[in-house]
Amino acid sequence: MDVLVMLEDRPEHSTVLAHVNSVPSPLNSERPSRDVVTLFGDATPESLALALAAAVEAHREPSERLDTIRHVALWPERGAVGDAAWRDESTGHLVTSDLAIPFAVLQDTAELLLAECGAAIRRLVAGLVMPDWPEGTHRAISFSLAPHAIIPAGAGARLDALLDSYRHADGLDHDQGD
């Protein structure tokens, strides 16, 4: 799972914390699909963890398909609300589905992410808020998660796989020993 994290000013008159959009890979391309997480306002490790939790939880939906396009907004206390769309393989018709992920679920996932990979998340936020970005440049940082981290399976197994991919990406491999 490729993720691009961007930082934008907060839209006027809006309390949205972040947008999470999933873009499938182009046809006949080896490039993987990508999730684009856009944080609004002041980026913190907690806000990034919530947005990443929304991306992970959106991939856990029962209708999950590789060619799904998702648009989700993350709201305080309301959770992640949005929709998903894909083409039905047999008919070619566009199929849509509403997405709603409760804030409590996002908080639980975000807390686990922070507990297991807080250092990596804090470094990512630090990179986004560095004062020496060139004027007019979009503040964006790309990173990858292992694909098995979001494959639908048992909830515990998925989260363990996600956390393992963060550890590997961060160089925090560890031996659990017996």
What does this structure look like?
The chain is globular, with a radius of gyration of 16 Å. 29% of the residues are buried. The protein has three helices and seven strands; from the N terminus they run βββαβββαβα. A seven-stranded mixed β-sheet has the order 6-5-4-2-3-1-7, with helices on one face. With 178 residues, it is of the alpha+beta class. Helix 1 (45-59) crosses helix 2 (103-129).
Low-confidence stretches: 146-156, 170-178
Instruction: Return the string of H and E elements.
Output: EEEHEEEHEH
Residue share in helices? 25-40%
Could you describe the largest sheet, including whether it forms a barrel?
7 strands, mixed
Specify the structural class. alpha+beta
Described by the principal axes of the CA atoms, the overall outline is: globular
- Number of extended strands: 7
Cα gyration radius (Å): 16 Å
- Quaternary structure of the protein: single chain
Mean of residue pLDDT values: 79
Number of domains: 1
As a percent range, the share of strand residues is 25-35%
Identify the strand order in the major beta sheet: 6-5-4-2-3-1-7
Query: With helices defined by DSSP (H or I, 4 residues minimum), what is the helix count?
Result: 3
Distance between the termini: 31 Å
Structural topology:
Layout (H helix, E strand, L loop, with lengths): L1 E7 L9 E6 L10 E7 L4 H15 L9 E7 L3 E9 L6 E8 L1 H27 L9 E6 L10 H15 L9
Parallel strand pairs: 1-3
Antiparallel strand pairs: 1-7, 2-3, 2-4, 4-5, 5-6
Helix pairs in contact: 1-2, 2-3
